[in-house]
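Summary for the steering committee. One of the milestones for this cycle was to obtain a three-dimensional model of the protein with calcium ion bound, which we needed before selecting residues for the alanine scan. The sequence and ligand used are listed below.
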Amino acid sequence: MSALDATHAPGTRSWVESANAPDTDFPVQNLPFGRFRHDLTEPWRIGVAIGDRVLDLHATGLVDHNDMHRLMAEPVPRRRALRLALWEGLREGSALQGVWTQALLRRTEVELGLPCEIGDYTDFYTGIHHATTVGKLLRPDNPLLPNYKWLPIGYHGRASSIGASGQQFHRPRGQTLKPGATVPDFGPSARLDYELELGAWIGTGNAQGTPVSMADAENAIFGVTLLNDWSARDVQTWEYQPLGPFLAKSFATTVSPWLVTLEALAPFRTAFVRNAADPQPLPYLDSEANRLQGALNIQLEVWLQTPAMREAGSTGVRLSQSNMRDAYWTLAQLVAHHTVNGCNLRAGDLLGTGTLSGPAPEQGGSLLELTQGGKRPLPLPNGETRTFLQDGDAVILRAACEAPQARRIGFGECRGTVLAARDL
Ligand code: CA
């Protein structure tokens, strides 16, 4: 577990003035890592977000490469030392201001990419409120299957179609089975949805055959981003049995560009509490540290910007709010469970949390929940309605952490836009 140190002191200001704005996602207490480039001809470079600027990490002299996997795989003490050096250089009064000013770029001047090349992608299902609501649509009397409270449910997803915020993708086509029909239709998905998730990015991998214990599980994670698991519900309903999601999910997934490190999240740890009436985690999924502060207090939001809103100059409407601390399993438990059979994780692997819905009906992290399976259209303030996403809709995920005696930090945005199905 990450301990608090000087880098978390809420009163510290930066000589980068925009990093001192109360509502910035990137004060000097955050210091997330991402990859940027000036244009398509340039290789990706490692950057650090500070206010509305990007610090070129290589240009600071703190590292001699631009290999994000190498940075992510550094042992925890080295990661902490780098964070401290960045904080020392960027805080108000730093002697490095004159030199590091040369390493600063405006965020609007550069393209932000995926934080790193992604090896394997696994998506979990830790949002118990999501699992219960969706389960009720299928099985009103028995929404949660018996395994749900014993192990973190997951499936192996598709890494090749994951894109950084700003991703645009064509509405997928596929097979769907209309109610009452016995033969499937083929065409563009009519029930395209988003899923509000976080992604945990592996830094330190494990050797095949060597499970990661709960004691070491968090050290394996380098950082966290937002993740939108776009889902074609009609395709999913027809294809998912017996082997789980396939083409309903693999056409696109969008992530935010900045890896918010576990070190930056240290002030926002909270107890992991398992209801006494529920099965307690098996020993390989349990630790005292996990019980004391295994959960994360991360506030989450989903915004929708329809084409009509965009034309009217509106940035969109907030559809829901929820919090990562309501997840049924912690990030450490995901790593311990994923590796317990000997499966090896590698730097750059991505673990999705599953849809993070809150306990209240209006806290659903997908349209499937907010519209009760498409039965209750969602009214929007401009008079439009949505059951599922329409062409041109942009979905924006946001996240921020707030706690007493801590500086607010944010994740930046995770934006993706649905384009019309491509002509065949
Ligand atoms: Ca998902």
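Key point for the committee: DSSP finds eleven helices and 27 strands in the chain.
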